[in-house]
Amino acid sequence: MKNKKAIALMWLFSLLPFLLVALAWPHLPEQVPTHWGLNGRVDAYSSPATLWLLCAIAPLLSLGMQLLPRLDPKRENYEKFQSRYDLFGPMVPLLLLVCVAVTLSESLWPGRIDVGRAILLMVGVLFLIVGNLMGKVKTNWFLGFRTPWALSDPDVWNRTQRMGGWTFFLSGLSAVLLALLAPSELFFALFFVILAAGTLLTCFMSWKWFRDKKEKGGGA
After folding, report:
1. 121 and 104 share a domain?
2. If residue 35 lies in a helix (H) or strand (E), which one and from where to where?
3. Is residue 90 located within the same domain as residue 40?
4. Residue 51 exposed, middle or buried by CB count within 10 Å (0-12, 13-18, 19+)
């Protein structure tokens, strides 16, 4: 990552969960909710200390976002989609920040929010944004739909990412609509079915584009 504002925002989102947990710590119960079932109900509780582990995930991912381009053998390609990579950087820490905030809310004021819908809505927005960015991602070993056929041919890579972008965008749109309209017993299951179907179709088309190109004598 090179954009200083994006880096600062990413680290702000990464460190804010620690502050939230520290502020809430004196008021937390002996057990806090740490897992919700597909029906949106709490099905696991843990010690409040578990929250510190949840907080630690975001800084590790943020550090990875800054280090991965340096480790990637195709690091020069990041220059071709740098602005999109910088935009993606703060998104995952933001999602984790929301998860921590939701967990604290349910620990202190159980039942105030519909956790399943809140998380699915946030995931949907994330997928919508990532879907819009993915079509411009160039060949690398860490981001995008990294099928063996896409990694073997730049044209197949570009087509795979464009289709993958639509898969993520439509999955995100479905997540938003399901979070707003579908029964709580169904929305996560339906979202995963839509995402899985789109992912499998994208992988199949990546293979087909590579095979067709190779049969025409243009393969890598």
Report:
1. no
2. strand 32-36
3. yes
4. buried
Block residue for tokens 């967990």 = 103
CA-based nearest residue to 135, from 189, 202, 185: 202
Neighbours of 114 (CB within 10 A): 14
For residue 174, pLDDT over 90 is answered with yes
What's the mean per-residue pLDDT of the chain?
90
178: left (phi over 0), alpha (psi -120 to 50) or beta: alpha
Unique residue bearing structure tokens 């800084």: 59
**Sign of the CA dihedral running 85, 86, 92, 98:** negative
- Give me the sign of the Cα torsion angle 212, 216, 218, 220: positive
Q: Is the pLDDT of residue 218 over 60?
A: no
Q: In the numeric block, which tokens belong to residue 196? A: 């899985």
Packing angle, helices 115-134 and 91-108, rounded to 10 = 180
Q: How many residues does the structure list for the chain?
A: 220
Which tokens sit at 93? 């820490």
Assess whether 3 and 91 both reside in one domain. Answer: yes
Q: Are 50 and 78 found together in one domain?
A: yes
Question: Is residue 1 predicted with pLDDT exceeding 80?
Answer: no
Higher pLDDT, 187 or 149: 149
Residue that has been written with the tokens 């950087």 in this structure:
89
Domain count, the chain: 2
pLDDT digits (tens, 9 = 90+) for 48-98: 999 999 999 999 999 999 998 888 888 898 888 888 889 888 988 998 999
Range of the domain at 60: 1-110
